[in-house]
Amino acid sequence: MADLVTSRIFVDGEKGITAAKLNDIVASSVIQPAFYTSKPTASTADPPDVMLLLKAGAYAQVPVSSLAASITASQIWSTRLRSFNAIGNPSFECDQRNIGNVVAAPATGTLIQDRWVYQKAGTLVASSGQRPAAASEVLLPGTNFAISRSFHRLAMTTAQASLGASDNLTLYTQVEGPQFRELQYDVHSISLLVRTSVAGLNFGLSIRDPATTTKSLVKLCTIPAANTWTLVSLPNLPVFPSGNFSTAPGVLGYLLGICLAAGTTLTTPANDTWQSGNFIGAVGQSNFAASSTSTFDIAFVQHEPGSVCTTFIDKPFAQNLDECLRYYCKSYSYAQIPGGAVSAGAVVISCFASAFPNMPIMYKKVLAKVPTTVGYSTSGAINTVRDASAGVDRTITAAVTPGDSGFSGFQISGAAATNWQAQFEWTADTGW
């Protein structure tokens, strides 16, 4: 028949027709395309309708309702579950603090750019900061998709060949509690897009609890080739143990660190398993600080639920900036480093004689916690307010009624004895 064609052909007068030969008619038969292409096309598929499914090597009937439920449960939910990245500013594109300027020798604990902290101990010195990749945007390996227009670079300027017990060089981020919820009770995975001038560099990736750092998980990462963007995949990480991890708003959930050098005190007793203690270095990692010319670049970090490292979830700049505003915001224009002698965006208040420059000032977004609010005169001087009437700066003594959504100006010393005009810029910083 035209719909079914078999390769078992009997010759005229053939003898020895066995059951096996007869069964070959079915086993070697092929349904012809014309069988289904000639059929009418249905405009809908209703739940009671039945489809033919090859299941475990045999044909079976499957109702459309069962097929839809199966796809919804296993595929769509799985995709939704994995469409999450806990890391803030994962593409290093947002930089309100230094707007792409490199800090030559930052102090340990410096927030170099939004959500990322520079930490070091020892005699080593490294520069740190965002590096624009305009005209050479960072592409996902094997694709033409630009995952970021920037990356963060740590560049050694003073080497330290031998590390003390607590010496280290680390870039880390502080993740707020609500971002930890999706990771809390199951295995999880981390992916990094990194590059270095050091061939065969081994470095440590750490997850720690934030309060007393009593729990640490450290993984050893390797970049085989120099000067090549490399995707480092760390799938199926062990479930978080009990500890000081938190899912509460306004509370740190956990810390994630990238460690390039670590002394013995900060090196984990064993990689790949949760350890009791504060550890950021991996067993077997290199001493990146051994050379004064070494560079390390990182373009993307993803921390997601589940046992598989999926494709990076893009973070558009507008979304990235909006999320960063929960932790740091400023009155200055985005492209202005705080402290410049500018007036764009400045608060201007007409004050009575001997009065403080007070008025409601709202932050651009409700912050994760009550921030440290700092004022700058439009002359550029920190901790001062500009008395535009007298042409002098007045010293700030305190922010007035600071909260997580705004403040009410500043108290100052030496307020003018006559009516005067105050001008100032401000920054609000949660330290995260």
Write the layout of secondary structure elements.
Layout (H helix, E strand, L loop, with lengths): L3 E3 L12 H9 L1 E3 L1 H5 L12 E6 L2 E6 H19 L27 E4 L2 E6 L3 E8 L5 E2 L6 E3 L1 E9 L9 E9 L11 E9 L4 E8 L6 E9 L6 E8 L14 E11 L12 E2 L18 E11 L11 H8 L3 E3 L16 E5 L9 E2 L9 E6 L6 E4 L4 E8 L6 E2 L2 E3 L7 E10 L3
Antiparallel strand pairs: 1-2, 3-4, 5-6, 6-11, 7-10, 8-9, 10-18, 11-16, 12-15, 12-18, 13-14, 13-16, 14-17, 19-27, 20-27, 21-25, 22-27, 23-24, 23-27, 24-26
Quickly list its features:
432 residues; 4 domains; seven-stranded antiparallel sheet; single chain; 37% strand; Jelly Rolls; mainly beta; 27 strands
Radius of gyration: 31 Å
Spatial order of the strands in the main sheet? Answer: 5-6-11-16-13-14-17
The number of domains: 4
What is the strand content?
A: 35-45%
Q: What's the CATH class of the largest domain, please? A: Mainly Beta
Helix vs. strand class: mainly beta
The stretches of 5 or more residues where confidence is low (pLDDT under 50) are none
Instruction: Count helical runs.
Output: 4
* Helical residue percent band: under 10%
For this structure, what is the CATH homologous superfamily of the largest domain? Galactose-binding domain-like
Mean pLDDT: 91
Number of DSSP E strands: 27
What's the overall geometry? elongated
Q: Judging by the overall fold, what is the CATH architecture of the largest domain?
A: Sandwich
